[in-house]
Amino acid sequence: MPGATRPMRADAQRNREQLLAVAVAAFSGDGGTEVTLESIAKDAGVGIGTLYRHFPSREALVDAAYRSELARLCDSVPGLLSSMPADKAMRTWMDQFIEYMTTKRGMSDALRKVIAWGGNPFAESRARLLAAVTALVQAGAADGTIRPDLDPADVLASISGVSLAVGDPARREQAGRLLDLLMDGLRYGAARDG
User: Fold this and answer.
1) Nearest CA to 35 among 65, 71, 12?
2) Could you give the CA distance from residue 169 to residue 158 in angstroms, rounded to a whole number?
3) What is the pTM of this model?
4) Residue 52 burial by Cβ neighbours in a 10 Å radius (0-12, 13-18, 19+)
5) How far is CA 11 from CA 14, 44, 63, 74, 192, in A?
6) CA of 93: how far to CAs of 65, 119, 193, in Å?
7) Is pLDDT at 77 greater than 90 in this prediction?
């Protein structure tokens, strides 16, 4: 079929995923924008040609790494909801969100360069995050563990606020306490409350 893309071979998919994992760690670490593509390829256990086959530029790699982290966070919701009550899934997801935001902040210099290059790594972020929170809120309302009158946008803004206030790793314990307080508010008045 003309224009059809073939599925990626399993080894190529593994290489791509390994490159993304190494890139996220490298770009969100202290080295940030100074990290070389050669060092990312080496740490991923592939050659530089393999890196360039998947990501033709540094900006393409940064953009894909950020989008990969966003997808990992948002795509975790169905698994969480299938393995625990919705309120527990929400609280677990909140911790994952704090990790995601820490990574995003660590990648900020690299992401700014992507934006300067003309990319928009954040184009889908809000919609995807809001869809994830909406699924969690709706599941909680359905199973009676989260109050039914919540606006998912308010919940997302609240979690984001905690992340902005105390999202750095040194303040993770305080972030956990604040997220617990937020969860108390999300449960208040739920069908199973009391």
Assistant:
1) 65
2) 19
3) 0.83
4) middle
5) 5, 13, 22, 25, 48
6) 20, 28, 21
7) yes
- What the block records as the tokens of 168 is 């750095």
Alpha-carbon distance of 66 to 72, in angstroms, equals 10
**What does the DSSP 8-state code read for residue 81?**
H
Q: Fill in the amino acid letter for 139.
A: A
Structural domain spans, the chain: 58-187
Sign of the CA dihedral with 49 first, then 52, 57, and 60 last:
negative
Question: How far lies 182's CA from each of 16, 22, 33, 34, in Å?
Answer: 37, 33, 35, 38
What's the fold here for domain 58-187? Answer: Tetracycline Repressor; domain 2 (1.10.357)
CB within 8 A of 127, min separation 6: which ones? none
Higher pLDDT: 131 or 28? It is 131
Return the pLDDT at 194. Answer: 47
Q: Which residue has the tokens 């893309």?
A: 5
**Tens digits of residue pLDDT in 104-160:** 877 887 787 888 877 777 778 889 999 999 999 999 999 999 999 999 999 999 999
pLDDT of residue 172: 87
The span from the CA of 176 to the CA of 188, in Å, is 18
